[in-house]
Every structure is written in structure tokens, then in C-alpha cells.
Design a protein that fits this description.
Structural class: alpha/beta
Number of strands: 4
Distance between the termini: 33 Å
CATH architecture: 3-Layer(aba) Sandwich
Largest sheet: 4 strands, parallel
CATH topology: Rossmann fold
Strand content: 5-15%
CATH superfamily: Creatininase
CATH class: Alpha Beta
Radius of gyration: 17 Å
């Protein structure tokens, strides 16, 4: 059984009668040599599954390939264009509305999906219909609650937070050499021009050696609490 995909039936969803759906958006990109290419998808799904369970939301299957162009040149990375991601989310939202579910929470696991912010902005012009979660404040609150040692600006990719989340949710996906994978690269003023290759040889930017399952659990607990404010806006 694939833990990333909902096992709910049509009958289950008829009984749930959710008015809000949750769409995890991940990526398929390098995360060094110790985390899988699906790391962002795993993170987004772990969050979305928790939110769905806590708030009786319609859990959708994840978008597993997104805008990872800054990771080009690292083996295994695959991207789609921003316009394709826009089209996918728009089509999902329209299909949900046709089925009577007119609110959507997008759970984004990949920081490079900048275009999701624009999608949500446009969707809410006539009133709250869509939210993007977690936002920066949600992550900052979670980092504090979990006692993360690295600064958010330094913990960019395959670092303390992501390793912690996977050690908690899917420890079998984390290879032991994360303990020796630290790579510090701050600041990164030209990331959009040079991509990750301009700042890291390993694909890592952060301190994965600081990650623990306990921190990952605390991050997820905090994010679950923070989501309540988003849900209230959609109600």
C-alpha cells in the first residue's frame, strides 16, 4: 500500500461530505545523497494527511512533479513549467467546484513553487476560496516549537527540517550518511540565476546532521495547530 495516496472510497467521501479539499504539491528533485527525490512530496503528504484526519477534509493525491528548475544538473531531477502547474491546480479546483467542494487548501512541500502564491491570490479576488499552507509564519512557528538549531535562512534544502520530517514520518527513506551531509552556503543572492549548482556541490544547503525524529514530530504538531487559522478563513 502506498502511504502517499489516500485509500478512501467514493462512499467514504460521500459520508464525509467535506467542503474543503487538501492538495499536497511536492516535487521530484535531488535532495543530496541521503534523501529521496520524492522528499518534498513526502513532506507535503505527511502534512496533508494530518490535516485531513484532524479536520475531515477531502484528501487529494499529490502533485509529484513541479517547478524544480533550480535543481537542473543534478541527476534525477524532473520539472514542469510554471504554466503547467497553474493549469493543473486550476483544473483540480474547477473539478472540485463542479462536485460541490468549493474550498481548497494547497499544501506546498517545495519552496521553488513560487507560482502557487499567484494562483491563490487570483482565486481569492471574489472571496476566500483557497489557501496556501504552510506560509512563512507557520514554518517559523514550527521551527521554534521544534527547537530547531539552524536558522531558517541557512536551512534551505535537505537540512535539519526536512531530515527531521522524514525521520518522523518515513524513517526508512533516510540514509545514514545524512549525519555527514552538512553544507553551509549563505547568503545566496543569485540563486535564481545560477541555480543550486552555484552554491552547493552536494545538492545540500543546511545541516542535516541536526535532524531528529522528535523535531519532525514537533514540526508536524505545530503545523497542524497553525492550520486552524487558515481553515477558519475558508469557512
Amino acid at each position: 500500500m502506498n502511504p502517499l495516496i489516500t485509500m478512501a472510497t467514493s462512499g467514504d467521501e460521500q459520508d464525509r461530505a467535506a467542503r474543503v479539499a487538501v492538495l499536497p504539491v511536492g516535487s521530484f528533485e535531488q535532495h543530496g545523497d541521503f534523501l529521496p527525490l520524492t522528499t518534498d512530496t513526502i513532506v507535503a503528504c505527511a502534512i496533508a494527511q494530518r490535516l485531513s484526519a484532524e479536520h475531515a477534509l477531502l484528501l487529494l493525491p499529490p502533485v509529484t512533479v513541479s517547478c524544480s528548475h533550480e535543481h537542473s544538473g543534478f541527476a534525477g531531477t524532473v520539472s514542469i513549467s510554471a504554466r503547467t502547474l497553474v493549469a493543473v491546480v486550476a483544473d483540480v479546483a474547477e473539478s472540485l467546484r463542479a462536485a460541490g467542494v468549493d474550498r481548497l487548501a494547497i499544501v506546498n512541500g517545495h519552496g521553488g513553487n513560487y507560482v502557487l502564491s499567484n494562483i491563490v491570490q487570483e482565486a481569492n479576488v471574489v472571496g476566500p476560496r483557497m489557501t496556501l499552507f504552510p506560509n512563512r509564519q507557520d514554518w517559523d512557528t514550527a521551527r521554534t516549537a521544534a527547537g530547531l538549531q539552524s536558522a531558517a535562512s541557512d536551512d534551505m534544502h535537505a537540512g535539519e527540517a526536512e531530515v527531521s520530517m522524514l525521520l518522523h514520518a518515513y524513517p526508512e527513506a533516510v540514509r545514514d550518511d545524512y549525519r555527514h551531509g552538512d553544507w553551509v552556503a549563505s547568503p545566496r543572492p543569485h540563486l535564481l540565476v545560477t541555480g543550486m549548482r552555484g552554491y552547493t556541490d552536494s545538492g545540500v544547503i543546511g545541516q542535516p546532521s541536526l535532524g531528529t525524529a522528535e523535531k519532525g514530530r514537533a514540526i508536524l504538531d505545530s503545523l497542524t495547530r497553525s492550520f486552524k487559522a487558515h481553515l477558519e478563513l475558508l469557512s
